[in-house]
Specification:
Elements: E1 2-3, E2 6-7, E3 11-17, H1 24-35, E4 41-47, E5 63-64, H2 69-72, H3 78-83, H4 87-106, H5 113-124, E6 135-140, H6 146-151, E7 154-161, H7 172-179, E8 184-187, H8 190-199, E9 207-209, H9 216-222, E10 238-243, H10 252-264, E11 270-275, H11 281-291, E12 297-301, H12 307-312, E13 315-318, H13 327-334, E14 339-342, E15 358-360, H14 364-375, H15 378-389, H16 396-407
Parallel strand pairs: 3-4, 3-6, 4-5, 6-7, 7-8, 8-9, 10-11, 10-13, 11-12, 13-14, 14-15
Antiparallel strand pairs: 1-2
């Protein structure tokens, strides 16, 4: 590239994440890779495990590095690690679980799983190889960020925050030791940034906001492809749709309870479809059966392409207990769907209430009230939909912010 008579050097970038299983973080990573300026950047992609239904979404211009067996262990069970002969890593994993169960609960952590992930890296780092070569910049896209912090040689280092940090139990000491290795910390929304800084205010100078980067053209194209035998197409009822992991964070159990409330109120012509999978599925199915909602609360399972299901819905609902910024909500807005979200801590960064979305109180009753309000007001739904269609949700301005971070010449904390 010629600029001012001199050729601008192509910057060598490493992006690291865990895998490409179906999830919002993985979709946003694919969107970013699709939008990258490959004329100015040579991108290596490090996935700890080459697995997941979204592997096919990876842009071929990004160079996928070979899977390394030691890093693949982070998506394996302890038994699989033992059988592979990686005894030291297996011992570190077992020790991290024991430590988290005992010390984490003593510290009052309601969910010690996040603390266990921190310890898992702490105990296994000595047995993990360093990345080869030198990079102008290295991006760690999914927490924990120890790999890029400790095993990558780069001039600049950037770490992403995708969640409301006030909702997760972590060791402040272990976290700070890692965060300080980075020049920039990227939050996916202003509310996500403030939640992070409420816990780590001393890192304020490092934090920038770059919203999820999506491809509206690709989403619209995929929404009219595939999804053969989509049961939503033949359902004449008013259809709610949610795309989410079946987990506590996403509040699918509250959605089932809200559906029971709607039925008890006499709203018989409503069906709720959920696209997704996760560890809470057995408990959710038991709750559906307990309330006798099998014919109106339908779990569709994992779908590589969720967009035809979003398109077939009348109202997109995100019943989450907490979020950073839900990619699926943005994708529904791109498709011009009216959306309803719960009033989780970062909700104001997701929608403008009454303009391009509707906020409900974070409870089964609140969710039911919000659905009933929108169900009964077609004009309001149409207004929300029209406002979404007039809005640019691509987040392309975030790419320029990212390029500015990549070009920053400060020495920063990436020592």
């Amino acid at each position: 590239m010629e600029k001012g008579g001199a050729r601008q050097a192509v910057k060598k970038i490493l992006i690291a994440s865990y895998d490409m299983e179906v999830g919002g973080v993985e979709r946003s990573l694919a969107g970013m890779l699709d939008s990258f300026d490959y004329a100015r950047h040579s991108v290596d992609l490090m996935l700890f495990r080459h697995r997941g239904d979204f592997m096919g979404l990876l842009n071929e211009r990004a160079n996928l590095l070979p899977e390394h067996p030691s890093y693949a262990t982070f998506r394996q069970s302890v038994g699989e690690i033992w059988r592979s002969g990686r005894w030291a890593i297996g011992a570190g994993r077992a020790l991290s679980k024991l430590h988290a169960d005992v010390i984490g609960r003593r510290r009052g952590f309601a969910e010690p799983g996040y603390y266990q992930m921190q310890l898992m890296w702490r105990y296994t780092l000595p047995f993990l190889p360093k990345a080869r070569g030198f990079y102008d910049a290295a991006i760690s896209y999914l927490w924990p960020h120890d790999f890029v912090a400790e095993k990558v040689n780069a001039r600049r280092k950037i770490a992403w925050v995708h969640t409301d940090y006030s909702t997760i139990d972590t060791s402040r000491k272990l976290d700070l030791a890692v965060w300080r290795k980075f020049d920039f910390i990227v939050a996916v929304s202003e509310a996500c940034k403030e939640a992070f800084l409420a816990k780590y205010g001393e890192l304020r100078e490092k934090v920038v906001v770059i919203e999820n980067i999506v491809s509206p053209a690709a989403i619209r194209k995929l929404s009219v492809e595939g999804a053969d035998n989509n049961p939503m197409e033949a359902d004449s009822r008013f259809k709610l749709v949610t795309v989410a992991r079946l987990s506590h964070a996403k509040g699918i159990d509250n959605a089932v309870r809200a559906m029971k409330i709607l039925r008890d109120r006499g709203l018989e012509r409503i069906a709720w479809y959920v696209v997704g999978y996760g560890g809470d599925e057995p408990a959710i199915r038991r709750l559906i059966a307990e309330y006798g909602l099998q014919d109106r609360f339908i779990l569709l399972g994992k779908k590589t392409n969720p967009y035809p299901y979003i398109r077939a819905g009348d109202l997109y609902v995100q019943p989450s207990r907490y979020e950073g910024k839900a990619v699926t909500v943005t994708e529904a807005q791109v498709l011009g769907k009216p959306v309803l979200i719960t009033r989780y801590a970062t909700a104001a960064s997701q929608v403008t209430n009454g303009v391009d979305g509707w906020m409900a109180e974070l409870s089964p009753e609140g969710i039911a009230d919000g659905i009933e309000r929108l169900y009964g007001d077609a004009a309001l739904r149409s207004e929300l939909s029209d406002n979404c269609l007039r809005t640019d949700y691509s987040g392309r301005e975030g790419l320029e912010k990212l390029y500015a971070c990549l070009a920053d010449e400060r020495s920063g904390g990436a020592a």
